Each structure stands twice: as C-alpha cells, then as structure tokens.
Amino acid sequence: MTKIALITGASRGLGKNTALSLAKKGVDIVATYHSNAQEANSVVAAIEAMGAKAVALQLDTSNTKTFDSFVAQVQQVLKDKWQTEHFDFLVNNAGVGVYAPFAETTEEDFDRLMNIHVKGVFFLTQKLLPLINDGGRIINLSSGLARFTLPGYAAYASMKGAIEVLTRYMAKELGHRQIAVNVVAPGAIETDFAGGAVRDNPEVNKFIASQTALGRVGVPDDIGNAIASLLSEDNRWVNAQRIEVSGGQSI
Questions:
Q1: Where are the domains of the chain?
Q2: In the structure, what pLDDT confidence band is assigned to residue 194 with cuts at 50, 70 and 90?
Q3: Residue 198 and residue 153: Cα distance in Å, rounded?
Q4: For residue range 97-123, what is the model confidence (pLDDT) as tens digits?
C-alpha cells in the first residue's frame, strides 16, 4: 500500500527536496506552504510528473489557532484523494532563521522562533496524532548549531536543542503505537535559508567548507535523500535518535 507523508514547509529548500526525494521512492505527499502557493503548486506538479500523488495546503506553523481547521483540511484531502483517514509520515520541517548576537536578540524575534520551531511543532504534531497510522514515523528537524556554536544563533540553536529533547519524549510516549520519532540535524546547506547566506556568500561558503571533513558545503539533496532513507523500511528500528547530516562539520 502506498505511503503518505505530510511535510511542513515543502514549497522550497529542504522541505521541497524531501518531498521530491520521497516521491522518487513512491511516497505520496501532502505539502504545506506558508505564503507562496505558486511555488507549492510547482512542487505538486513535479511530484505528479513522477507518478505519485500530491496536494499543497496553506499552513502558518506559528499560529496554533489555525491548527484545528488545518487538521480538518487534511482529513478531507485524505478522504477525497486517497480514500483513507490516515497518513504514515510527518516531517516537521518548516522554519525560519534569525541571525542576531545574543545581546541584540529581540523578544519579538525570540517569540517568532519559539512559535515556529518549538510551540508549532509540539501542538501541530499533537493535533495530527489521531491521523498518523500506528507504525508510522515522525521526523523533526534540528540543526548542527545545536551541537557546535556560531555567534549569532543563540536563540535559533536553543529552539533546536529543545526539539532534540522533545523528540526523545515523543519517541518514548508514542512507542506504544509503534511510531518511531527521530531528529535530523543538517549542517550548513546551500539554500535560500537565512537569506541564502551559505549559498550566495562565497566567503561564508568557503569558510564552512574549510570546517567540514568532506571539504564542501551541503546541498539540499544531501538532506532530502537522508530523510527519505530514514523513513524507509531499512531504518524501521531507528528510534529516538539525533542524526546529524553535515559532512562532518566542526568536528
């Protein structure tokens, strides 16, 4: 039976790549996007061109008040497009980056990061639990910055540290349903994240490559394929783990 994955923030960057990587393996996709419907629809078209099914739904992961209506939309889509009440994989990918020294981080920026990266993940997953099949999987996204430190990311990295702890608690409390929960922590990746600094700034790119054992900066395929592999049956016994995908950055 075809598996279905719900991926937040799947219109661009690592979410998009994860959606495409899973679709290549025959997984159908429910992709969420924040504001760019055109980009999301292009991802859906690319997935459908591979022969998989896909749909895009708007979601603001920072606004928990919208989650009930979003879950109702997911229920309707599952019924209409797949004739089912459940999906198999949840990938909590949606996120934003804020670069600011600790002494200059505003409460507004802190709250924005908290709402998206911690509160949103916590309560969206909670709301979606009844729709996830027993034996399903959840993947949360962290960052290499939760392990090593770069000035300017104190708030962002702290949120990711919280997600790593939350992942272990999810795994423990959902084990009775045979739902495995893991966290993937990318290193620096060439995307438009944080204004595209890693991708577009040659000096930043060169510095990170020099700090990485494999001698280059990561690309989206490095992450999307890793997540798709983690969700395969080959890794069904991996649970409650932090898996860093960074090429050996800052080791």
A1: 4-245
A2: low
A3: 14
A4: 999 999 999 999 999 999 999 999 999
